[in-house]
Amino acid sequence: MLGRVLTGSEPLLDVGCGAGGSLDRFLTHHGPAGSAVGVDFSEGMLKRAAHGTRSHDPSVLMRWVLGDAEALPFADESFEVVLSVNCLSHLNRLEAALRGQYRVLRSGGIFALKFRGDLTLERPVERAMRSALARELPAKRLASILSMYEPASLEAAAAAAVEAGFEAVDVSSAREDWMADADEEVRRFPSIVGYMLEPLADGERDRVLKNFAQNLRDSARPEGLPDFNYSVTVTARRPL
């Protein structure tokens, strides 16, 4: 566990900040920063982040930057702490991303990464959606869409952190199981994977969603739909 790693003076970067929730939670639980920057490739998410309600110290200077997590638009050794939550699962170049995060960290700086690991592809909702997409799309288009979410394994993340040059690399995983409501997931999950459905024509999307709903209901048991979350956490430090 990181504990209260911030003292109020450190510059902090959140890679793949989305609407700002992960950065907000980090500041709340790990102490105030001197300044905090969120970077994301989505202008819409950054606008939401800029107008969101913050629960941490309002004196922290916040800045939102449009940029690519695999080619960070910052100078070398700009930040004391770099974090990334649930962004890594959507990147195609794991090693390049971690090398970039190493580059923008100062000597002795802290790196904290959390992402949904490769086992999440075994979730019933994931299998149901991928099966529905495979039924509708030719192989080349299917491969392009599925590549939008290819979560890494714990082992791959640890190896990439070491290869990037980090030291004191600590890796852990956690799994939480529950029974979900299939009908609720039919309504909810397509909004989560909207980026995969967006490239489809209207008719294709309608057929995929119909097949997804049927696949998911076929997977349900009388007591509900078996579901789980699997996350990987990596903490490390850039050597002095």
The Cα radius of gyration reads 19 Å
Content-based structural category: alpha/beta
- Terminal CA distance reads 21 Å
| Percent strand | 25-35%
Number of strands: 7
3D structure, described in words:
By secondary structure, this protein is α/β, with parallel strands linked by helices. The protein has 9 helices and 7 strands, in the order βαβαββαβαααβαααβ. The protein has a 7-stranded mixed sheet, sandwiched between helices. α3 packs across α6, α4 crosses α9 and α7 runs antiparallel to α9. The protein is elongated, with a radius of gyration of 19 Å.
Give a brief description.
The chain is an alpha/beta fold. The chain is 40% helix and 26% strand. The longest helix has 18 residues.
Strand and helix map with partners:
Elements lengths: L10 E5 L5 H10 L4 E6 L2 H9 L9 E6 L12 E7 L8 H11 E12 L7 H13 L2 H8 L7 H11 L2 E14 L1 H11 L1 H4 L4 H18 L5 E13 L3
Parallel strand pairs: 1-2, 1-4, 2-3, 4-5
Antiparallel strand pairs: 5-7, 6-7
Helix pairs in contact: 3-6, 4-9, 7-9
Task: Offer a few descriptive terms.
single chain; 9 helices; elongated; 240 residues; 7-stranded mixed β-sheet; alpha/beta
